[in-house]
Amino acid sequence: MATRAAGQTGGGEAAGEYWSEALKSFLDHIPVSSVSGALQPSPSPALEIKLDGSVPDAIDSMYHSNVAGAVIVDDVRTSFGKFVDRDIGFLEFPSLLLWALEELDNMENGPGDKNSDLLSCLKQHPRIAETKIAWLSKLFLWEPFFPVRSHDTLFHAMLLFSKHRRINVVPVVESMNSSVTRFVTQNAVMELLLTSSGLEWLDKIADKQLSEFRFYASKPISVYSDQTLADALHILSKEKIGIAVIDRKTRCLIGSILCSELYRLLDDNSLFRNRKTLIAEEFMKLKRKVEDNSTENSPAADVQSVLSLRPGQSKTTDRPVTNRKSDTLKQAMEKLTASRSSCSFIVDEHGRVEGVVTARDIISVFSPPCMDSRIDGGTFFSAALEQTGCRVEQGQMIQNS
């Protein structure tokens, strides 16, 4: 008996129900609360940014709270005095800072002392200082807010990551309209998937070489090592993940500049002030020196929140994560989760970049297709269906007799 994918005509409701139940049988027994990467080390709730807050204040608050993202809240009360839909969005530190830097660089002869630090300059810039968080929704600087509850499952979280490409973290709430206290990240999902290493349903996909996947053809965005930090930041403002730094002569990968490193512009004011003359290679040398000094002079870091702005002392960020095209998807997953990085550059035997794989790319391999499209027979879930007595043929799900 053949059934059609959910969202299509002809028994779509029944097909959608059957499709969901078949898939949930694999991941719906894993509650979000069991994802170790989602647990915050502190009982404190997530940082909240109000709609009427200013951009510099939001950057300042996230920086000094050491968080890479904050929940946007709108204090709307009903006639009963209760909050309704307080949490309306998620704001990421890199996106906000990159927007502000673009505004600064687009201003000709604007206010601000050349010796001022970044936050002071932002507060002296009228357009930035007067811009409210509410206005940024028009620029799509907010991430969608789709919370899950602690008893929801990994399957639920993977659906959100796969269907909404702008989601990088999924907030966890205890009940409707309650404060966010935990988050599920893409790396946490990969980490949990890796716990099934050795089982057929995972290895059937994860043991394939990277060259066998469609994302292998995606070329990474790059800058030459002699281009300025300002050039790299401008590209980052559009890419929002990371860029490869390439030696102009050899065309080899010598480093990377990631969104997760932007806090350094506030840690070291000279980086901000010299961003238009400092070249990418010099920036990488400086951050490597900082990493080496902090490792030598600081005690071991405590357990951190998954949204910590600064990495722990045990994590090195000066060298990019790399893989070879002959590496397996599982090997890429292991490198990304170990480094807490968002992307790995695929290089050849000479160190030249051939492609890039992101955490989102990997999750999409293991995630179900969109419910309103034809079922893709090439994903992990197709193999999972076969183990429940189903198969996929030409976009249709067929139950074996």
TrEMBL record:
Keyword line: CBS domain, Repeat
Biased composition (Polar residues): 305-315
Residue span(s) of domain CBS: 315-373
Stretch list, region Disordered: 290-323
Domain of life the protein comes from: Eukaryota
Record's keyword annotation contains Cell division: no
Pfam families on file: CBS (PF00571)
Protein name: CBS domain-containing protein
Biological source species: Oryza brachyantha
Source taxonomy: Eukaryota, Viridiplantae, Streptophyta, Embryophyta, Tracheophyta
